Amino acid sequence: MDYTQFKQIIDNSRDILMGKLPSPIAQVDAISYALIYKFMSDTDDDSAALGGKRTYFSGEYEKYSWHNLMSPTTTGADRVILYRNALENMSRNPNIPPLFREIFNGATLGFTDSNTLNLFLREIDKIKQSSGDSIGDVYEYLLSTMGSQDKLGQFRTPRHIIDMMVELIDPDKSDKILDPACGTAGFLISAYSWIKKKHIEKERLNSEDIEKIHRNFYGFDIEPNMARIARVNLFLHGFKSPHIIEHDTLSSEDYWDDRYDVILANPPFMTPKGGITPHKKFGITSKRAELLFVDYIASHLKPNGRAAVIVPDGVLFRSSSAHKALRKEIVENKKLQAVISMPSGVFKPYAGVSTAILVFTNSSNERTDKVWFYDMKIDGYSLDDKRSKLKTSDVPDILARFKNLDGEKDRKRNEQSFFVDKDEIVKNGYDLTINKYKEVEYEKVEYPPTSEIIAEIKKLDREASESLTELEKLLNETNPDL
C-alpha cells in the first residue's frame, strides 16, 4: 500500500469521525489507537502464519482481537461495547510492550454511535502495516491537520521549516539529539530522515546499527497527549522504544545533567498567567517560557554541540534584564552563527507572530566573532491564511548560503543576507533584529521646479473650467428650460 492509498484512508477516517469528534486532536487520538490496535493484530497474524503464537491478543485479551471485533456476527452495539472495553483495558494487557501500554493509558472511545464506529473500523481494516515508511509519513500528514496545539503559544511547525533547520544543523548518526518541547516529534522525525538519507540507505546499515541510532533520539513534552502522539509517530517510523518522556523541562530538575550533540526546537512562545515556576539551575532569572527554553538549550549542548531554535521576535530585542542576559550569553559564551528572520505569515492560519531562527554552537575553541543575518521574505507558501504553495522560496538560497558562509563576507547591508561583527552587536545592547543593521536604500525622486508645478495646476484648472462651460452649453441646447 503506497502513500496515496494510506492518505485516502486517513482522510476518509477523519471525515467519518468529524460528526462525533469535531476536535482535530480527538480525531488524531482515535486514529492513533486504531492504528496501533491494527498493528498488533497484523503482528499476531504474521506470527501465526509462520507457525508461532499470537502474543498481543492472548489469554483474557483474546476476546478483543481484531478478528472478533470485525466479525460479521458481531452486532453494531456489541462492537461499540467490545472496542470501548478493549481501549480502556489495553493499558493493563501484560502481553503488549510497555510502549503500547503507555499509548493506551487513559484511552477510551469518545462516542457511542455504532454506524460511525463500523464505518471507521472498516477504513482502518484496509491497512496492512508492513509498508515501511509509508504509514509513518501518512501519520505525519494526519498530525499536520492539528495545527494549533493549545492556547499556550504552541503551533505546529511547518514541515519545510523543520526540514530546513535540520539541514542547517546537519545531524549525524552518532549524534545524541533532543527536542525539549517535542510536541508530535516533527523535529525528531525530520532529523532521523536526514540521517537515513546520509547513512542508512547508502551504507546498508543493519538492524543493530539502526537501533543504536534510534537510541540517540530524545523528546520531552509536558502534555500527556502530545507525548503519546509523539511515541506513536516515532513507532510508526520504525522506533521500537522511543525515548519520549512526559516531562516539564522548565520546572523539573530531572534529566538536567544530560547533554546533547544536537538540540532542535520550536518551544512555546507564550507564558501561562502567573508565569512559569522554574527551578534554580537556569542561568537567567525569568518566568517567561521562551527565554527559559533558549537558556535550557544553550546550557545543555555538549562541547561542539549544535542548536537551531525558533524564537519570537521579542527575544531578539526586548530590553528586560533577562532578555539582554540571554542574548549576551549566546553571543559571548557560544558561537552564534546565524539569525534567520522569518515572515509573520509562516504560522498562519493559526498565528501571525513574527519569528526568527537562532543557530548556534557550543564550540570548544571558538566564540562569536560575527553573525550572519538573513531576511527571509518568501518561505515557499503564501503568507495569508490559505498558505498556498508558491513557485519561489528563499529556503534553497538560505541553505546554499549558510553552507558557504565564506562567500557572504563581502555582502552589503542592503542585501538579503550579510554579516555583522560581534563588536557592533555588543554596542547595540546585543540586539539581534535584522532591521537594526540592515541598510535601506531610498530611491531619489526628482521633482520639477515649483513654477512648473503651479503652471501645470493652472492649466488643469483652466481645462476643467472650459469643460464645465462646454457641458452647460450642451445642456442648454438640449433642454432650454433648465
From TrEMBL:
CDD domains membership: AdoMet_MTases
Catalyzed reactions: a 2'-deoxyadenosine in DNA + S-adenosyl-L-methionine = an N(6)-methyl-2'-deoxyadenosine in DNA + S-adenosyl-L-homocysteine + H(+)
Pfam family, one: N6_Mtase
Matches recorded under SUPFAM superfamilies: S-adenosyl-L-methionine-dependent methyltransferases (SSF53335)
Similarity section: Belongs to the N(4)/N(6)-methyltransferase family.
E.C. no: 2.1.1.72
Residue ranges occupied by any DNA methylase adenine-specific domain in the UniProt entry: 131-443
GO BP terms in the entry: DNA restriction-modification system; methylation
PROSITE patterns hit by this protein: N6_MTASE
Domain of life of the organism encoding this protein: Bacteria
Keywords: Methyltransferase, Restriction system, S-adenosyl-L-methionine, Transferase
GO molecular-function term, one example from the UniProt record: site-specific DNA-methyltransferase (adenine-specific) activity
UniProt-recorded name of the protein: site-specific DNA-methyltransferase (adenine-specific)
EC top class named in words: transferase
